[in-house]
Design goal:
With 324 residues, this protein is an alpha/beta fold. 38% of the residues lie in helices and 19% in strands. A five-stranded parallel beta sheet has the order 10-9-11-1-12, sandwiched between helices. 44% of the residues are buried. The structure holds iron/sulfur cluster (SF4). The site of iron/sulfur cluster has 15 residues, from helix 1, helix 4 and helix 8.
Length: 324
Amino acid sequence: MSVMPQKPALKVVLCSPRGFCAGVVRAIDSVERALALYGPPVYVRHEIVHNRYVVDGLRAKGAIFVEHLSEVPDTSAPVIFSAHGVPRAVPEEATRRRLFALDATCPLVTKVHREAEIHYRRGREIVLIGHAGHPEVIGTIGQLPAGSINLIETLADAARFEPRDASRLAYVTQTTLSVHDTAEIVELLKRRFPQIVGPHKDDICYATTNRQEAVKRVAPAVDAMIVVGSPNSSNSQRLKEVAKRAGCPRAMLVQRAAEIDWDEFSGVARLGITAGASAPEVLVEEIIDAFAQRYAVSVETISATEEGMFFPLPRALRETQAAE
Ligand code: SF4
């Protein structure tokens, strides 16, 4: 009689909170709701959230993803703006073309847009702390006339920055930054320009803060950390960096179980798992299942905080809902 070789033991430590935030749920629900109400196609400008699995799922239901409104034909079908927000020129173009636009920008991103606008109206030069090229940064910069917002990505940028008038200066931040790195940049700006005005600390959202906090707690106690998320997801990338800084050198971003390089996990006895704000829980489960095929897995959850945030759907979808 042959004896099955015993699987090695693996302790999986799940970070909580992880995965979907309220802004992502609202954005995905907006597309689902628009598809249910109006039928396909529903156009979506940019990936509704930065996750290939989510985007492919919505595409299969009839969503058409475009990068520019110019790719949308003249149509009565809804056109939805992604959770990351859009430059002002985009809704303006939609209005001009009489498109049926629905804005799924996360309310916490819209809040940053409004802050920037208020600073501008008060005659302040604005610094945006964020990553060049990210759609949220493009959207925030695009709220105001060109040249009104200076982008600062690093401490070195903050050290070099020369405002027009240091007594009339303000800052806002991207919502999905590293809490640690941003605090350093804000501190330097405040030291150099004591009159700079801004939010209490930064504009990093609750979901980004909480997911980083959970990773900080788990990272020192595990041999490796998987961040379930897409490479273009800013908050997922930050979770990987936070894990490394908190003492877990083997931190990696994984989109699907099929991507796992099993050699990387040889000798790992304790594995941390988290997920970026745009990664669905079903992918976390898929990855745990893949480990359970090879290891005798036991699962523990370490929680940094409870979340109860909820954002209602965009008004047009809510009202139609109520009228049914
Ligand atoms: S990560 Fe934060 S800002 Fe981005 S959609 Fe989620 S709640 Fe909104």
